[in-house]
Specification:
Helices cover 46% and strands 19% of the residues. By secondary structure, the chain is α/β, with parallel strands linked by helices. Helix 6 runs parallel beside helix 7.
Length: 262
């Protein structure tokens, strides 16, 4: 297939050893492609999965793309988005001077992703059926964790925006590793403070070991506090708002992205 207007889009994922993670990423890339029929959309992984980023770029080049809009399919502006992916893109640009590569930004505190997280929380509450007032509810937004203070600040901002709409008694962030508090610690603290419901919302794009561990830790602590209603929400995945966010980021990259040179 030849790209319309000779413009292609590459969604750059981290990759992973779990088939579910890769499958969900590829499904999301397919959903984004359906929303952008004017472009040819490809995807590639940084590591641990195929196709690689280089293979995705080459696919678009062979399809006749003179311009490639590349965006990191990562939540935050960490090392992968800021360093590792641009290195690969620049090397490809150096070998293929006939292709212009424009690079976009990670999502950080993106309104569409915040909306997706809130929608996952609302859906979990609705599915639970049991009505418990927001003022008797604690919400934990669970992230991967990072040493970068900017990532933690973004998580705090996301939690604050969700709280401004949903008005729970308590909202805080918790992490699977590196940063504090860890998920089990935050769950225990909430369970011991007389809340009738504790909601755990994994702020992850896709499934994986950390998401499953967060769910398992929640189940374990729920067993210690049978009088508390523990509620696990879905992670972001391919919620329509997430797809909106990817489309918006791609269009923004077409206008204000960084032109990479080899």
């Amino acid at each position: 297939m030849t790209a319309v207007n000779n413009i292609g889009v590459l969604i750059c994922g981290h990759g992973g050893s779990e088939a579910g993670t890769v499958r969900e990423f590829m499904a999301l890339a397919g959903d984004v492609a359906l929303r952008l029929p004017q472009y040819q959309v490809a995807s590639g992984f940084l590591e641990l999965a195929t196709p690689t980023i280089e293979e995705g770029l080459e696919k678009l080049r062979q399809a006749g793309c003179a311009t490639i809009l590349a965006i990191p399919g990562t939540l935050f502006s960490g090392g992968h988005a800021m360093q590792d992916i641009p290195v690969i893109l620049r090397k490809f640009a150096a070998r293929n001077r006939d292709v212009k590569i424009t690079y976009g930004s990670a999502f950080d505190v993106h309104p569409d992703f915040v909306n997706a997280a809130r929608a996952r929380i609302e859906a979990a509450i609705e599915d639970a059926g049991k009505l418990i007032a927001p003022e008797k509810t604690a919400l934990l937004i669970a992230g991967r964790g990072a040493a970068d203070a900017r990532v933690l600040a973004s998580m705090q901002s996301i939690a604050g925006q969700i709280q401004s709409e949903m008005k729970f008694s308590r909202v805080e962030t918790a992490y699977a590793g590196i940063a504090q508090p860890l998920v089990p610690e935050a769950l225990l603290r909430a369970a011991e403070q007389a809340y009738e419901r504790v909601i755990i919302a994994p702020y992850f794009l896709f499934t994986g070991k950390l998401v499953q561990r967060i769910y398992a830790e929640t189940d374990a602590i729920a067993g210690l506090y049978p009088h508390v209603d523990f509620l696990k929400t879905g992670y972001l995945n391919n919620h329509p708002c997430v797809i909106d966010g990817f489309v918006a980021q791609i269009m923004e990259t077409s206008m204000t992205g960084t032109l990479l040179h080899g």
